[in-house]
């Protein structure tokens, strides 16, 4: 029996979230014990992570490649090579394996892959797993990976009801599950591989025979997502998260008995789980931006707030320095804390759920910029270049961001400005060599002289919207068009030197067909590319009384037809549903989150509840193949 009185109180308290600002504010003094390392592009949605050599931590990016945080806190990222279909990968799960290799899964649907990185060089080796045959990973969207029995790596098939075993030479054995889509994996104390299924099952796979036994905890089947991560605890039991119903489960492998422990914060979506160096069970609360621990002896749960809400902490693991490390997909960071000195302060309440008690909502920061139940999107550039006439500029990460929501896709529809924050953000981009560097023929030489370093020569470029962004539904999905003004910022040119308006298509080509992103996320991040030919008019407003217009136009070769100009950008487009309870900033409340925490003060976890698990056994079914390594 669930403790409905306690749960009802927590649900009623969480319902007040509509009066709580959804920005990144935290209670005073909260999260002082957390260290966070921001990623170069926040939207890449970091997921799985593992400890590497030399005090490093490696992580997978759903909309990027692989990343490493070194012992000094510096980040280096490594792109994944394209697959045989010439599309990009989407890394998700990660684990350390034999020989010091860092293994990871590729959750792209068209060509699911498993691979490993050499931590010394970042070079990757990948294997495209079978998508045909009696047991396969077709449409798999691979999730977790773990070092398991036989010195091999074991990985989950995601949407494909299968589990794989792979050696470093590329020999793969594919095992059928009991019909479950696998999310989390753990090597059990009994020599078996245990997994969580999105159908609410806890499965046990016998590596020798391939036999699968699935247990069904009564609570798990009533929520979505039904189950999350799984780990072998210090007591020899299997511990797992139940995000849909806000519980932590414990399965005794000797008896099959299941205990469940309610999490204090309602609708918090516990997902990632690990054993800390203190022998406590630690887990993430993805919908509430908290990290929590559970004492396996008493069942007591303690919760600790991260520095900001909408951080969406996903996976968690023990790492260097005796610290617990975790990924924050909602804000694009890798965090850590000392389990002996966790952050103080009241835990954050959860994002308003789709349905209280059964359907929590894991959301990213950008979704708070859009009203509830509206399609919300943000696009940010990660690199690329812009060519205008004879002028070319390489763009750094985060140069341009567009955010907004869509109310309709009929004729004349626009991308609505967000209810908080800016719709179009353009960071100033420094032009190498300044104005002198743009002179025809001699600019490349003069741009390196001492004169080029003078403040009066400094030139930066920004962009702004000249009209609302229009949207429509096209053959490939939503298409967007923007009219942009390019601003040349320089002391001599003044503050009104503009090239524009330039009509540009912001419709991206998606580099991962079918989308990327951990299935537990409440949004989808897409690696994208924009290649757009643009016609560019002459510059105007340059210098006092526009006396330098002719100079700029001659230097840059303006006006210029679309055949001579291009925007070639890479980036990340994220799509989700807005979670802001208000349509306009004027009616949004600024109530402090601490006001809500007072209502939940004193709510403690109830004694564990014994559960008897229903079971289903599947006859062994497996296939072994040898794969080709790709680099």
Your description of this structure?
The protein is mostly beta strands and 631 residues long. 5% of the residues lie in helices and 38% in strands. It has four helices and 45 strands. Strands 29, 30, 31, 32, 38, 39 and 41 form a seven-stranded antiparallel β-sheet that branches. Pfam families: Vgb_lyase. Residues 1-30 form the signal peptide. It comes from Actinoallomurus spadix.
How are the SSEs ordered, and which strands pair?
Layout lengths: L3 H11 L19 E5 L7 E6 L5 E5 L4 E4 L5 E4 L12 E6 L5 E5 L6 E5 L6 E5 L16 E3 L5 E4 L5 E5 L4 E6 L5 E6 L5 E5 L4 E4 L6 E5 L13 E3 L5 E5 L4 E5 L6 E5 L7 E6 L5 E5 L4 E5 L6 E5 L7 E6 L5 E5 L4 E5 L37 E14 L2 E4 L5 E7 L17 E3 L2 E2 L12 H4 L13 E6 L4 E5 L2 E13 L8 E8 L3 E2 L12 E11 L5 E2 L8 H8 L9 E12 L15 H8 L8 E3 L2 E5 L3 E5 L2 E2 L1
Antiparallel strand pairs: 1-28, 2-3, 3-4, 4-5, 6-7, 7-8, 8-9, 9-45, 10-11, 11-12, 12-13, 13-44, 14-15, 15-16, 16-17, 17-43, 18-19, 19-20, 20-21, 21-42, 22-23, 23-24, 24-25, 26-27, 27-28, 29-30, 29-31, 29-41, 31-32, 33-34, 34-36, 35-36, 36-37, 37-40, 38-39, 39-41
